[in-house]
């Protein structure tokens, strides 16, 4: 039996948020059983905030199992907290560490 593919998507640029979300949607639609985690840091956290233009698509993706996480280091440096994000957005201590760990676990890395 082939294991389900797992993809970690790196978002660190505000301008790429729409592309990242479209790529993630395409993965879900075209790759059966895929597990996706979007990891955001630096300017990439901004489009994931509550009320962003991408909020509706993010909510749809979260309902389909996509995990969204933002970097606690970035939140501290920007004076943000978990309360600035929808409830389905989690945090990780370090986005860079999360990306490295996921790849070490065998996740495929995607940076649009």
UniProtKB/TrEMBL annotation:
Domain of life according to the entry: Archaea
Xref: InterPro entries: DsrEFH-like (IPR027396), Sulphur_relay_DsrE/F-like (IPR003787)
Record's signal peptide: none
Pfam families on file: DsrE
Protein name stated in the entry: DsrE/DsrF-like family protein
Source species: Methanoculleus nereidis
Taxonomic lineage from the root: Archaea, Methanobacteriati, Methanobacteriota, Stenosarchaea group, Methanomicrobia
């Amino acid at each position: 039996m082939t294991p389900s593919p797992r993809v970690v998507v790196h978002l660190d640029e505000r301008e790429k948020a729409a592309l990242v979300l479209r790529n993630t949607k395409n993965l879900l639609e075209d790759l059966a059983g895929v597990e996706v985690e979007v990891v955001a840091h630096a300017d990439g956290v901004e489009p994931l905030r509550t009320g962003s233009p991408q909020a509706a698509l993010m909510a749809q993706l979260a309902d389909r199992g996509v995990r969204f996480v933002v970097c606690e280091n970035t939140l501290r440096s920007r004076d943000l907290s978990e309360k600035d994000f929808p409830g389905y957005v989690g945090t990780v201590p370090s986005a860079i560490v999360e990306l490295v760990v996921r790849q070490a676990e065998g996740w495929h890395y995607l940076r649009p």
